[in-house]
C-alpha cells in the first residue's frame, strides 16, 4: 500500500475565477466525456509562487471544495491566475462547484489529494443520486 501524504498537508482558501479557456473547444468537439475534454477541463490554474508557498507542485492532483461539493483537478501554473487565487475553466466542474449566484467567482478550499481527476460521469452520477 503506497504512503498517502496528502492527508497531512494543509487546506487553504482561494477565490476561484471561472473563465473560458480556448483549447477546451478542441476537446468538446470530441465530446464532453472524451479524454481530451477532461484533460483540458479538469484543471485548476494558479500562480507558480502561490502554489509553491502552499506546498503544491505543477501536475499535482488537488481537491477543490465549494458549497459542500468537491472535485479533484490537476493543478497547473499560469501567470494569468490571480496572485492568491485560482482560475478554472467554465465546464461541468465549475458548474458543479458553484451556486450560480456567484458563478464567475467563488471561494473554495484547496488541498492536495490522492488519486486521479474527477471524471464528468462521476459528477453526473452524484447529481442523479441526490435527485
List the helices and strands and how they pair.
Elements: E1 12-19, H1 24-28, H2 35-41, E2 43-46, H3 48-53, E3 61-66, E4 69-77, E5 85-89, H4 92-97, E6 105-112, H5 120-130
Parallel strand pairs: 1-5, 2-4
Antiparallel strand pairs: 1-6, 2-5, 3-4, 3-6
Can you tell me about this structure?
- With 131 residues, this protein is α/β, with parallel strands linked by helices.
- 27% of the residues lie in helices and 31% in strands.
- The chain has 5 helices and 6 strands.
- The chain has helices at 24-28, 35-41, 48-53, 92-97, 120-130, and strands at residues 12-19, 43-46, 61-66, 69-77, 85-89, 105-112.
- It has a 6-stranded mixed β-barrel.
- It is globular, with a radius of gyration of 14 Å.
- The model is unreliable at 1-7 (pLDDT under 50).
Name some characteristics of this structure.
131 residues; alpha/beta; single chain; globular; 31% strand
What does this entry show, briefly?
This protein is α/β, with parallel strands linked by helices and 131 residues long. The protein has helices at residues 24-28, 35-41, 48-53, 92-97, 120-130, and strands spanning 12-19, 43-46, 61-66, 69-77, 85-89, 105-112.
Topology as a string of helices (H) and strands (E) = EHHEHEEEHEH
Radius of gyration: 14 Å
* Helix count from the secondary structure assignment: 5
Binned, the helix content reads 25-40%
- Main sheet attributes: strand count, strand direction, barrel closure: 6 strands, mixed, barrel
Low-confidence stretches: 1-7
Shape: globular
The secondary structure category is alpha/beta
Oligomer category: single chain
Per DSSP, what share of the residues sits in E-state strands of 2 or more residues? Answer: 25-35%
The end-to-end distance, rounded to whole angstroms, is 36 Å
Amino acid at each position: 500500500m503506497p504512503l498517502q501524504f496528502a492527508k497531512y498537508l494543509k487546506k487553504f482558501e482561494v477565490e476561484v475565477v471561472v473563465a473560458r479557456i480556448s483549447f477546451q473547444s478542441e476537446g468538446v468537439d470530441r465530446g464532453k466525456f472524451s479524454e481530451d475534454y477532461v484533460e483540458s477541463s479538469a484543471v485548476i490554474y494558479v500562480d507558480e509562487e502561490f502554489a509553491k508557498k502552499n506546498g503544491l507542485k505543477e501536475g499535482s492532483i488537488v481537491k477543490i471544495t465549494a458549497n459542500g461539493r468537491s472535485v479533484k483537478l490537476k493543478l497547473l501554473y499560469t501567470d494569468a491566475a490571480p496572485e492568491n487565487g485560482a482560475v478554472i475553466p467554465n465546464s461541468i466542474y465549475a458548474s458543479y462547484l458553484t451556486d450560480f449566484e456567484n458563478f464567475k467567482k467563488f471561494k473554495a478550499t484547496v488541498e492536495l489529494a490522492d488519486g486521479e481527476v474527477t471524471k464528468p460521469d462521476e459528477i453526473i452520477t452524484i447529481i442523479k443520486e441526490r435527485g
